[in-house]
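Technical annex, item 7. During the second reporting period the consortium partners agreed on a shared format for inverse folding records so that results from different sites could be compared directly. Each record opens with the tokenized structure and is followed by the designed sequence. A conforming record, contributed by the partner at site C, is shown below for reference.
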């Protein structure tokens, strides 16, 4: 096992800073390329998961808003607003995630259904099988579904 791999496994931060210094110094032949590539790929996957999870929380609150009109609260409204802002920021930082988001709305909606079922006590069959909101609606600050 190489010393860079040992460093990676023993002290991630030190390994990371060492590789950053090597890259900045132009010493590309000395970097731990395989582990750097793995970490970069992991970062991309983490950002995508975070985006899907934020969208799932947003969709879950939109469902609660629609299906529990008597329980609507400022807290729900603020959660919807916060999740929209978080999604917007993630897409601003990584615009290419927007294209993945279009493809992953169904995945986010499946998570939203599980969360909504848990929080409302309603059966899964209460909610539409397919996401009833377009991505544009879900992200529109003025959109709140009616019951």
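Designed sequence (site C submission):
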């Amino acid at each position: 096992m190489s010393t860079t791999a040992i460093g990676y496994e023993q002290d991630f931060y030190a390994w990371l800073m060492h590789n950053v210094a090597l890259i900045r110094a132009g010493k590309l032949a000395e970097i731990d390329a395989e582990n750097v590539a793995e970490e970069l790929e992991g970062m991309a996957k983490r950002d995508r998961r975070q985006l899907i999870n934020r969208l799932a929380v947003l969709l879950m609150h939109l469902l609660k808003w629609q299906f529990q009109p008597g329980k609507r609260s400022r807290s729900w409204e603020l959660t919807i607003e916060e999740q929209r802002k978080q999604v917007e920021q993630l897409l601003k930082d990584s615009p290419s995630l927007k294209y993945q988001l279009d493809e992953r709305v169904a995945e986010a909606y499946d998570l939203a259904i599980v969360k909504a079922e848990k929080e409302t006590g309603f059966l899964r069959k209460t909610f539409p099988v397919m996401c009833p909101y377009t991505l544009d609606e879900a992200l529109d600050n003025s959109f709140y579904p009616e019951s």
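The longest helix spans residues 33-67. The chain is about 70% helix and 0% strand. All partners now use this format for quarterly exchanges.
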